[in-house]
Design goal:
Low-confidence stretches: none
Radius of gyration: 17 Å
Oligomer: single chain
Structural class: mainly alpha
Order of helices and strands: HH
Largest sheet: none
Distance between the termini: 31 Å
Length: 60
C-alpha cells in the first residue's frame, strides 16, 4: 500500500515539474519526491505490508 502511495506522489511531482506549475513550498516537486522516497523506504522495511509477522493461530 505504501508503494502505491509513493507511486502516486511521484506522478504528481512529475506533472507539477513537467508543467512548471508554481506551487507553495509544501507541494513542491522536491518535497513530494522526498515524501515518496520515505514511503518507499517504509515499504522496503516491511511497514504497511499485508503480511503480518505475528501468528494468529497455531497450525499443526
Amino acid at each position: 500500500m505504501l508503494a502505491i502511495a509513493a507511486a502516486v506522489l511521484f506522478v504528481i511531482a512529475f506533472v507539477i515539474h513537467a508543467t512548471e506549475t508554481s506551487t507553495e513550498a509544501v507541494f513542491s516537486p522536491t518535497s513530494l519526491l522526498l515524501v515518496g522516497l520515505a514511503l518507499l523506504a517504509l515499504h522496503s522495511a516491511g511497514m504497511g505490508s499485508a503480511w503480518s509477522s505475528r501468528r494468529r493461530g497455531s497450525r499443526r
